[in-house]
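ARCHIVE RECORD
Type: protein–small molecule complex
Small molecule: adenosine monophosphate
Source of inputs: curated submission
Record status: active
Notes field left blank by submitter.
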Amino acid sequence: MKVYNSLSRKIENFKALEQGKVTMYTCGPTVYNYVHIGNLRTFIFYDTVKRALKLNDYKVKHVMNITDVDDKTIKGAIERRMSLKEYTELYANYFIEDLNKLNVDMDTKFTKATDNIDEMQKIIVKLVKEGYAYEADDGVYFNVSKFKDYGKLSGMKVDGSYSRIKNDDYDKENASDFALWKYWDANDGEAYWKGELKKGRPGWHIECSAMSMKYLGKTIDIHCGAVDLIFPHHENEIAQSESYSKQKFVNYWLHAEHLLVNGQKMSKSLNNFYTLKDLEGQGFNPLSFRLMAIDSHYRNKLDFNFENLRKYEKLLAKIDLSIKALNKVEKYEEKEDNYSRVQTKQKVEKVIELFKEAVNNDLNTHEALQHFLSLLDLADEKTKKGKIDNNEFSVLSTAISKANDVLGIYIDYKIPEEIIALAEEREQKRREKQFIEADLLREKISENGYSIADLTGTFVITKKYLD
Ligand code: AMP
Ligand code: ZN
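STRUCTURE (tokenized, with ligand):
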């Protein structure tokens, strides 16, 4: 498997620290509001990395942090007169809901910053003791000039003079000493911890170092984020972790490009964002956004607009129909291998090989999706004939599900019994040539959120998608 490593700025062959196992840490959301679909593009990217690793038979240990203490969460909780815990849990739950709707593989250890304060303090104390960090009047700061490799990830120059940054809106242009621990002030309300350090709270960067090392070890295989995290967040994570452990922090740094709106980064501060709920409110299926995300390469910017999303909604409807039709079409048993069987098998094997090559080529999901669709074309050819040999069916459906295990764009679902009964009634009416009644039944089915497609010798019910 080849991936682009931001640290070496090269495509590299992936080699795990321990054979067959991967440790992976991904920077999660700050839960002060709903996440937007820009954030979600990045989380779909994490999911793709994990699924690609699993395709290559790795066992993946994946940790994602939830930032539940920082300037914004504290401010939000105070404004809403909620405790920090109540406030952040509210948005953390919405976040998990979004991941589920996007069919994200939840085989992940989610961990909150506030559940790992002791580990953060332990690291900070050692950094101070060894001279990497120092105390100022408002907190404890990391001394950037003490880490000789500072800038190795981002290429940021260090020139020997640094300002100090306490707040969480970090300077993206210059290196600065950054807060590891912020002493309490009146704006912090109830958000403080004691312990080995003076009453205060952690800075943002230290969270990820502490959680990554605690749950995955001092050196891990993969750390992911979006490109805006390279500097200063990830650069600072490296500085504090490696000063602490005297070991390499991460072997492969993977970064996804941004989701844009009209050429600008989607962000809460520019107020140009949509949430998944906004898309659903307009009638879109969340998976059409997933489809849009994986159809672009993660290292390319992706410009979002609704017209484009509509195309993916249509494609999603087509995918759903093809899979449902393949499952529904009549199966028959050929006694022995014939030309058609052999051909299907060969074609499918070739497509799966190409699919895997695309995925392993720095996660070329755009190309992988094309191969997935070509499997569905093969399926469509068969269903058009009105029946399929059992053996060909099993070859095709196994391949489709293997590819879908990586792309995650199809979730199987059950059609309610009442809808099936209505559809059968409609079929009966059609046979009796009572077309007006049949159409009324179709409408009723549609009002309930499903649609019917008539195929050779049968009909298929699917969810309803936007036209
Ligand atoms: P935040 O909650 O702001 O810390 O962001 C959570 C994750 O989403 C981080 O990895 C960010 O880099 C990422 N992110 C923020 N905005 C965008 C965007 N417009 N496109 C893609 N990823 C983003
Ligand atoms: Zn992080």
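CURATOR ANNOTATION: The pocket of adenosine monophosphate (ligand 1) is lined by residues 27, 29-30, 38-39, 41-42, 225-226, 228-229, 258-259, 265-267 (CB under 6 Å).
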